[in-house]
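hey so u asked for the seq, here:
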Amino acid sequence: MKKIALLAAVALLAGCNGGKGNDSAKADNTPITPVAAPNGGDWTQMVTKTADGGMLMGNPNAKVKVVEFSSMTCPHCAHFAENGAPKLISNYVKTGQVAFEFRNFVRDPLDITMALIARCNGAGPQFFTMTDALFKEQKALFERVQAAPPAELQQLANLPPSQQFQRYATYAGLPAFVAQRGLPSAKTAQCLANQAETEKLVQMNSDAVSNYQIQGTPTFLINNKVVDMPGVAEDKVWETLEQRIRDALA
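ran it, structure tokens below
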């Protein structure tokens, strides 16, 4: 798989952002005029795959489109998934005025493994449900992989990519974990061997770096422009992003 070689080069650029500053701004609380979803539906249950490979939740014609470049093995991304994304979804995506697109930005083989599993059932609410579950389990997954025999882990790089992903999934206990959440083990194995989807993930990295100079995660776009957050502490990311969303809605 030639494209997998791109990952090594891109991964060197990819960090996990975690600001230590205190700069932030509180958003106003002006009510947002909602846009009705079709057939009395719920925008947060409407998920489509975009041309860029991301999963978009909400109104595809929303006034404000938020994109998150996120790594499944980035602790700061896990923090936003727990503390920021739920507010973004319930307070903004649900109104139909804001859409939220999640684009995987893979940094390592375990990251690809988790991304392939999250994307295994295609576009739909289940993508975000599985992604959230994997973020919540992130620390435990790390611990299980680190408990694997060091000699075996060192040999993984010599295996074909699909076999690497299957081994990482096994070490992390992912087949059983996702089976309990409705993804059968046979389908998990099939998705981990999906070369086209793996190449798509690697291409998404290349596109992100080329088009937006993404160097770390999480990184956000609002209406296709990178949200600059210099010095913003991890626990202030949502406040800063919310203010930028409010600015874009004004």
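Residues 64 and 98 are 5 Å apart (CA to CA). The longest strand covers residues 64-70.
lmk if thats what u needed
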